[in-house]
Specification:
The chain has 403 residues and is α/β, with parallel strands linked by helices. It is 42% helix and 13% strand. It contains 14 helices and eight strands. α2 crosses α14. The radius of gyration is 36 Å and the shape is elongated.
C-alpha cells in the first residue's frame, strides 16, 4: 500500500474584528418638557356626621326642648376614613327605603340584625321595626318583637296607630306660598294644599308673588277653593288682589277660551270681591260660554277667622305627613323669614326621598347661618338616618324617639 502524505496544518487566518457602529447624535427636542406637578387625587376625609338625639318624650317648654341631640351616643354616626361598615350598611338601607325599595331593604335588615352584636345591631333593629310600621305589616312587627326581646333582653316597641295631625287649635293653620307662574310641572304646593283641604286643616296662602298659572292649574285651584268653601275648611288667601287684577284683565267677554281660568276668577271674587263685581263677571261668563254661572254665596264667618301669627299658641309646630316625594318646601321660607316657625313635626311622615331631604337642607341652611334654631321633631329612624346622610343634622336639631 502506498503511504499517505503527512497532514500539514492550515495556516492560521487573521481574526475577524467587528466594528461597533458609531452612536448617532440624539436629535434635539423641539421644546423642553413641561414641569410636571403631581397632586393627590384622594380628597381629604370629610368631617364626621353629627349624631342624632334619641329621647323617650318631649317637653318643649322645659329641659328636654333645650337638650342638644349631639350629646347622645345611641344614634351617633361617625364616618371615618377607610369606611365604617356599620355606617355603610345603614346608608345602603336608608337609600333603598328612600327609593321605595322596601323588599330589598327589609331583606338586608333581617340579615344585618343577625350579623351584628346586640349593641351595634340596635340601630338595625330600630330601622326594621320602623320599616314594618311604615309598610303596615303588623303581623311581622309582632313576630319580630318576640325575637327582639329574646335577643336583646329588653321590651320590644309597640305598634303605633296612625293619628291625624293635631287640630288647628293646637298646630295652627298651615302656611303656603304660591309664587311665579304655576304650571303642571311645578305645582307641588297646590297638591300639598289639596291634601290639607282633604284633611280639613285650615291654611293660609300667601299669593303676593303669584304672577299667573296655566289653565290646568287654574282648574285645580278653582275646584280646591270651591271644595274648601263647601266643606267649611278655612283657606285664607293673603295678598291676592294683584293676581285677581291680572287674571281679570286677561279674560275678555265673548272669547270662549280659558274656561277654567274664568271659574278661578269667579271663585276669587267670591272670596275677595264685592257682590256687584262678582255678578257682573258671572254674566260675562254666561254670555261667553252659554252656561249657567256660579251663584254668589255668603261665606261663613270661619273663612275669615284664621288666626294670625300673634294669635297662635307658642311653640307651635308645622306638621308634615305621608310620603314626602319631590318636595321643595317653598312654604317654609316665608315662615322662617317671619320668625313664625321653629319646629317641624315629622311624626306622621312615613318616608322621605333623597330629593326632598336635599331640598330641606337648602331651605334651612340660610337660616341656620343667621343663627336660627330649628328643631325637627319625631321622625322615624329611617327618615332620621337619611337626614344624617344628607347633612341635615348639621342644620337643625333632630330629636328622635327611642322607638
Amino acid at each position: 500500500m502506498p503511504e499517505r502524505p503527512a497532514a500539514r496544518p492550515r495556516p492560521a487566518e487573521p481574526p475577524v474584528v467587528l466594528k461597533q457602529p458609531e452612536p448617532e447624535a440624539a436629535a434635539p427636542l423641539a421644546e423642553p418638557l413641561p414641569d410636571l406637578e403631581f397632586t393627590n387625587s384622594n380628597p381629604a376625609p370629610s368631617a364626621p356626621l353629627m349624631p342624632l338625639a334619641v329621647t323617650d318624650d318631649f317637653d318643649f317648654s322645659g329641659e328636654d326642648f333645650d337638650r342638644d341631640f349631639t350629646e347622645s351616643s345611641v344614634m351617633a354616626i361617625d364616618v371615618e376614613q377607610g369606611g365604617d361598615p356599620v355606617q355603610a350598611d345603614i346608608e345602603q338601607v336608608v337609600v333603598m327605603f328612600a327609593n321605595s325599595q322596601d323588599a330589598p331593604a327589609r331583606a338586608l335588615l333581617e340579615m344585618l340584625i343577625r350579623s351584628y352584636s346586640r349593641e351595634e345591631g340596635m340601630r338595625f333593629w330600630r330601622l326594621l321595626f320602623d320599616l314594618l310600621q311604615a309598610t303596615g305589616d303588623r303581623a311581622a312587627f309582632e313576630k319580630l318583637g318576640f325575637e327582639f326581646a329574646e335577643a336583646c333582653e329588653t321590651s320590644p316597641p309597640t305598634w303605633r296607630q296612625e293619628h291625624p295631625a293635631p287640630p288647628t287649635a293646637v298646630a295652627g293653620p298651615r302656611i303656603f306660598v304660591l309664587q311665579g307662574v304655576l304650571t303642571g310641572d311645578g305645582a307641588q304646593p297646590v297638591a300639598e294644599l289639596a291634601k290639607l283641604v282633604d284633611q280639613k286643616i285650615d291654611v293660609r296662602v300667601d299669593c303676593g308673588k303669584l304672577v299667573g298659572c296655566d289653565d290646568d292649574v287654574a282648574g285645580e285651584l278653582a275646584a280646591l277653593l270651591r271644595k274648601a268653601r263647601r266643606t267649611g275648611v278655612a283657606v285664607d288667601l293673603e295678598h291676592v288682589e294683584g293676581f285677581i287684577d291680572r287674571l281679570n284683565e286677561r279674560l275678555v267677554a265673548g272669547e270662549a277660551t280659558r274656561a277654567t281660568a274664568w271659574l278661578l276668577l269667579l271663585e276669587l271674587l267670591q272670596r275677595h270681591g264685592t257682590q256687584d263685581t262678582f255678578e257682573e263677571r258671572a254674566v260675562d261668563y254666561a254670555v261667553t260660554f252659554e252656561l249657567s254661572p256660579p251663584s254668589w254665596e255668603t261665606l261663613p264667618a270661619k273663612h275669615s277667622a284664621v288666626p294670625k301669627a300673634s294669635e297662635r299658641p307658642r311653640d307651635e309646630a308645622y306638621y308634615l305627613s305621608g310620603e314626602l316625594k319631590n318636595c321643595r318646601f317653598d312654604e317654609l321660607v316665608a315662615m322662617f323669614e317671619a320668625g313664625e316657625l321653629t319646629i317641624l313635626d315629622f311624626s306622621a311622615v312615613r318616608r322621605m326621598d333623597f330629593f326632598s331631604a336635599g331640598q330641606l337642607v337648602n331651605r334651612i341652611a340660610p337660616f341656620k347661618a343667621k343663627g336660627c334654631d330649628i328643631v325637627i321633631r319625631s321622625p322615624n329612624h329611617l327618615v332620621a338616618e337619611l337626614m344624617a346622610v344628607v347633612g341635615l343634622n348639621k342644620q337643625a336639631r333632630i330629636i328622635v324617639p327611642k322607638f
